[in-house]
Amino acid sequence: MFSFHCESLRLAGRRKGSFAFLQPETGTRKGDTLAISKEKKQQVVAELKEMLERSNVVVLSDYRGLTAGQMAELRNKLRPLDSRFMVAKNSLILRSLQELGLPDLEGLLQGPTAVSFLFGGFGQPLQELRQFAKETESLTIKGGLQGERVLDAQQIQTLAELPAIEVLQAQTLASVQSPVSGFVGLLDGALRGMLYALSARAEQIGEAA
Known about the structure:
The chain is about 60% helix and about 15% strand. With about 210 residues, it is an alpha+beta fold. The protein has a domain at about 50-160: 2-Layer Sandwich (Alpha-Beta Plaits), CATH 3.30.70. A five-stranded antiparallel β-sheet has the order 2-3-1-4-5, with helices on both faces. A hairpin with a 2-residue loop joins β4 and β5 (about 150). α3 packs antiparallel against α5 (about 125-135). It is globular.
């Protein structure tokens, strides 16, 4: 009985080309399996497109060597920084980019690819990615996108080294503080002079009347 069952499976597998399609307990046929797979791909593409449209910066990385636990750790680090880290097939990433009319990044989509979507400020998330890559020695940043601009690994590194927006705001305010103070003083003097002239003219008109 056992040998007959094995022979049946062997012949069925030969006809279908793979034992993966044999699911007698669920009644699923090969065509049904492909339909589910296609639906799943469409869902992934829709999710990728939604996140690409929201992102200020997108980073592609090679994650070979990372464990499932390490990837979960990185996700947890990026989530509070308004960023998301996910793994997707290169073909689906490419399709998502093409459907949005973005650069296809085909040159970067080689080997296993993880995508980091940075929705808000990108300085701190990029620093987290860089530090994580340094600590694990298993995450390699390939490049990415900033809007429609393609970035290589070195440009991603440069972005990571930029000061935070709060620092830039303080520096900008400090650099213009003195000129603004001088301009306000000049404007205040001009206004006082104009008001004095108008007041004097009003007095002249009153005396003539």
